[in-house]
Prior knowledge:
The chain is an alpha+beta fold. Helices cover about 25% and strands about 35% of the residues. It is built from five helices and 13 strands. The protein has helices at about 10-15, 30-35, 90-95, 125-140, 170-190, and strands at about 1-5, 20-25, 45-50, 50-55, 65-70, 80-85, 105-110, 115-120, 145-150, 155, 160-170, 190-195, 205. The chain has a five-stranded mixed β-sheet with strand order 2-1-5-3-4. The chain has a four-stranded mixed β-sheet with strand order 6-9-11-7, sandwiched between helices. A hairpin with a 2-residue loop joins strand 3 (about 45-50) and strand 4 (about 50-55). The longest helix has 19 residues, at about 125-140. It is globular. The two termini are about 25 Å apart.
Amino acid sequence: MLITVRLFAGLRERAGRDRVEVELPAGAVVADLLAAMDVAPRSCVVAINHEYADEREPIREGDEVALVPPVSGGAGVVRVVRVSAEPLDLDRVAAAVRDPAVGAVVLFEGVTRHVPELEYEAYVEMAETRLRAIGEEVAADHGLTAVVLEHRTGTVPLGEPSVIVAAAAPHRGEAFAGARALIDRVKAEAPIWKVEVGAAGERTRIEGTLPPAPSG
């Protein structure tokens, strides 16, 4: 079977394209894909249909498959999840989590500093899925009543936010702990990458951490 594999960030740059086709036998698993592509162990994680997969996960014809390199994530508790090129609006985010039952709202902005701009790239479909899952899990762990997670893509100039998380809870302790857990997990797990752009236009890709894959 012929599998199309999406590439992002440094992998895309090295390949010179955003996807490659790989021939695999019927019944192939993630380990077979990595071997066929000559990918070094633990240098990236495979995602299948927007979920991280372990090496024993089967790959079927028609699956959306991606190689995810190290990364630099409404109704219900998770009110808004958004990954887009639009500028972020702190007032809009704050309004989305306010509620008569809320006694504390903690907002966190990650803002471009030191360099004229940052450029963000994301595996958008998977990033939004992961952000929603992170929001639901952190809300359950910390007793949050509302969560918003927004991340910007494209160019983010000096002083502007690239990510905002909001955590609302009955009391400040839960809200502070929840907001910290949200941003820590977004930075560790969401398939989003960044490049620093200097004053002379020089570009430096920021190395991240490998997102967690299921251990099986």
